[in-house]
Automatic annotation (TrEMBL):
<dbReference type="InterPro" id="IPR003738">
    <property type="entry name" value="SRAP"/>
</dbReference>
<protein>
    <recommendedName>
        <fullName>Abasic site processing protein</fullName>
        <ecNumber>3.4.-.-</ecNumber>
    </recommendedName>
</protein>
<keyword id="KW-0238">DNA-binding</keyword>
<dbReference type="GO" id="GO:0106300">
    <property type="term" value="P:protein-DNA covalent cross-linking repair"/>
</dbReference>
<dbReference type="GO" id="GO:0003697">
    <property type="term" value="F:single-stranded DNA binding"/>
</dbReference>
<keyword id="KW-0227">DNA damage</keyword>
<dbReference type="GO" id="GO:0008233">
    <property type="term" value="F:peptidase activity"/>
</dbReference>
<dbReference type="InterPro" id="IPR036590">
    <property type="entry name" value="SRAP-like"/>
</dbReference>
<dbReference type="GO" id="GO:0016829">
    <property type="term" value="F:lyase activity"/>
</dbReference>
<keyword id="KW-0190">Covalent protein-DNA linkage</keyword>
<keyword id="KW-0456">Lyase</keyword>
<keyword id="KW-0645">Protease</keyword>
<dbReference type="GO" id="GO:0006508">
    <property type="term" value="P:proteolysis"/>
</dbReference>
<keyword id="KW-0378">Hydrolase</keyword>
<comment type="similarity">
    <text>Belongs to the SOS response-associated peptidase family.</text>
</comment>
<dbReference type="Pfam" id="PF02586">
    <property type="entry name" value="SRAP"/>
</dbReference>
Length: 220
């Protein structure tokens, strides 16, 4: 489970990371994202209609329709921001996106909270706080979740069982983090090849970079 992550990389750094020419960067004049929450936009790398890679903004969370229990009328949809590795191929909600629209979600850290009143936020980094990518899927839907000028698509993050570093903080789930050597397979491989990548990331390549009660954005 992940409901908060950060991407503080500059656009130039992201283009270098993906060997992407400037004309394939659709982010506009963007700055870093020290805290990305469900229902808000984040940068995503996907294959465009022409088959080439592009960086673009999408809203975090597939929209699930909801109705009011009192009036039975439609209300704002729920944002489903995580997709389980053990359900993404069997559930009709996820399957087509997994088979046809996989993406990379660039990040610099992610957060898991432990406890309540107050919660303690634990921020995890990878390979000495280097930029990395989550495994993602996307679909074309313009859902603003009450916000103006929403992006043209939404994305969701794959999760798997936690490794030994994450498990004490979140015992059930952790985001699927992809090794750089697997990025192209995730984007263009077969569903079977992509499914083989949905596994816990090695804990010896991760660390808790900060923890505290008021850390709702990536620490400096």
């Amino acid at each position: 489970m992940c409901n908060l992550y950060a991407n503080t990389s500059t656009q130039d750094l992201m283009r270098q990371l993906f060997s992407l020419p400037a004309e394939r960067d659709r982010l506009g004049n963007a700055s870093g994202w020290p805290a990305i929450f469900p229902k808000y936009p984040g940068p995503v790398l996907r294959l465009a209609e022409d088959g080439e890679r592009e960086l673009t903004l999408m809203g975090w969370g597939f929209a699930m329709p909801q109705t009011s229990r009192k009036t039975c009328k439609p209300i704002q949809p729920k944002a489903i921001n995580n997709a389980r590795d053990d359900k993404v191929r069997s559930s009709g909600f996820w399957r087509k996106s997994f088979e046809e629209r996989r993406c990379l979600i660039p990040a610099t850290s992610f957060c898991e909270a432990k406890g309540r009143g107050p919660a303690v936020y634990h921020w995890f980094g990878v390979d000495g706080r280097k930029p990395f990518c989550f495994a993602g899927i996307w679909r074309p839907e313009k859902i603003g979740y009450g916000k103006e000028d929403p992006p043209e698509a939404t994305y969701s993050m794959l999760t798997s069982t936690p490794n030994r570093l994450v498990k004490p903080i979140h015992p059930d789930r952790m985001p699927v983090i992809l090794d750089e050597s697997d990025w192209e397979t995730w984007l263009q491989g077969t569903p079977d090849e992509a499914a083989a990548l949905m596994r816990p990331f090695p804990e010896d390549r991760m660390e808790i970079i900060a923890k505290g009660e008021n850390l709702r954005s990536e620490p400096d």
